[in-house]
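Forwarding the complex inputs:
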Amino acid sequence: MTDHAHSGAGFPGPAAPEPKAAPKTNLFYSEKFRAIIYQIVLIAVVIGLGFYLVSNTLTNLAERGINSGYDFLDVRAGFDIGEGLIEYTNDNTYGRALIVGALNTVKVAFFGIILASIIGVVMGIARLSTNWLVAKFATVYVEVLRNIPLLLHLFFIYALVLNILPRPRDSWNPLPGVFLSNRGLKIPVMAEHPIWMWVILAMLIGAIAAYLFAQWADKKQAETGDRPKTLLPSLGMIFGFGAVVWLLGGAPTAVNAPELRGFNFAGGATLSAEFFALLMGLSIYTSAFIAEIVRSGIQAVSYGQTEAAKAVGLNPGNTLRLVVLPQALRVIIPPITSQYLNLTKNSSLAIAIGYPDLVAVGNTALNQSGQAIEIISIFMIVYLSLSLITSLFMNWYNGRIALSER
Amino acid sequence: MADITSNTGANFVPTEPRPAPAAIRPGPMTWFKENLFNTWYNAILTLVGIWVLASTIPGLIDWFVLNALWEAAPADACREVTGACGAFVYEKWRFILFGTYPFEQQWRPGAAVILFIGLVVLSCFKPMWNRSLLIIWPIGLAACWILLSGGIFGLDHVPNNLWGGLPITLMLAVLGCLIAFPISIFLALGRRSNMPIIKAFCVGYIELIRGVPLITILFMASVMFPLFMPEGVTIDKLLRAQVAIIMFAAAYLAEVVRGGLQAIPKGQYEAADAMGLSYWQSMVFIILPQALKITIPPQVNTFIGMFKDTSLVLIVGIFDLMFTMRGAIQDLEWRNYYKEGFVFVAIIYFVFCYSMSKYSQWLESELHRGHKRL
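Prediction (whole assembly, two chains):
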């Protein structure tokens, strides 16, 4: 070793040895060759194992008289589902039942994500509050909730809903037409009328117009420094468009109010106890994690930014809204995306409290039809696509807010 | 210092030292002013907070202490009190903790749990971080297994369909992560490999498992594994759930390990190559020791997640802590005291998870120390 070190420094080292003849090319010493061998071995093992499992499965299925394949999706399901976004009766097929379940999963995940974000951001900011009481309250909230399993949250909330709220007959009636009982919350809705479709469409167009108006206002602000008032015109566009269409359509006012018939309610719209318990459990549990992400995101923004904002005269609310949060978002978005994915996947715990989500419906279908492999593959495909859609959306959003560096 | 004073000459007359400034001792009023009423909206928040506390805390104390019945008593006695029914806990704690394990033998799961927790606590201390752990752990785990299962040393054999409660929860979580850990290292290395097929296989496995809920994997284990087996071979329910948890944990731990591998500077890889180390030598001696060290805190966090997630096994009918608690509150006599059951189990989960998360925070600062530049 020392010889080599010295020879470089101009010392007359020992005579350099004659270069040896190139070693015999043994294929096994070639990294590329070995890589190919490893991969072939892996493929062989995977195929062999797969073949073994598939042949076992086929034997077992044949023995139990189960036909594999997705034909069972067209068979009459014969079981009822408590709630759903689309029409369903027990005469419909397994396929439709699974779609009802998947839509229920999407529904609870969608509202859960919104609610969890709101609670989480509020709690995350509260943890950094200068108010000692508020900060301590937020700390206790986060530490207690995230250290207890979600399943326990769900059981507890559901048990409270069932035990504390009265039976439908003695339900609480805080507002006319609104009934709260252990079957859930019943509210009156507008009776069906074709014009409501168009009203919703008009409000959507109004929202797009408001968005374009805000873009124009941004441009104006960049040019002149003055920002045109946007709040009232935007609200006007969204609700004004809707109101005009409603008036043009004859201004229907018929209401479909819930009323007590026998042991349960008929009419109106329902927020079921199961949906409520699942939504609250998921959002409260996830909000504790989101609060921690928001807190660390805000702490990652250097304090100089807050001081600079104070120096230019922004009040604390505007400092947070215009200076700190936009910068914190860049740190916050990636971990929050994985929390959204967790919430979506955790919504599968619905089965434990009887909310008919994809897994609960699929489990009933599985017990009836015995098509285990097909139904579990459907679970996996649906959840993988939901995860993919959420990630794509969040990646798009992340790209939009990312710091554009030169 | 001496030179300076000598230069000032003989006329120098030192002045009297000024008295030290009065120490500012903020009294409670200052503290209140600064931390509770520093702005008008904080004042409002504080008042709202005090109102909320004033309206909930006395109720909680009433429920938990003043009006509670904390003694062994029949269920009827609890109807007399408006507060917590501690009698429920006295009556059911052994069932919740140990499930259907034969009653007179329940000292065995109890001893196993204590031994096991002792093992974990012991490995948390820094002086223990050496090869002795490699000897202590197998012995400890074997002792736990013998205590639970029996069959030798004069202990009666207790089949695992009678096990339940806390030992099951701990076993699923700890064995799950212990066995998943080496698998996860291979998956993480595979994911960073430049052999396309191995990489694709590892990426596919990790992303598939991470993309679906644990419940679907548990379902797969409980209804699909039996189909995979050759005729006549059956694996018991507990083992199937354990395999599902290992598969699940391996994917999550692999991502943590990958994070550690990516955090190691490229120079380390190049230096290992320059030394002429083979791939496995450079991984085992250079890269993994550094990568695994920085991933210990996130690994603890993953473990906390797994510990909470083991509660899902109740859906496929394994008698874990959550299952036994549900069983206890379904007893007709005691079913009005579900709150006590939930709170009891919540406290157990909380104590485990909270102490682990505090440990993970301590560990982070402890491990970080070597990296800080002075």
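The two ends of chain A are 48 Å apart (CA to CA).
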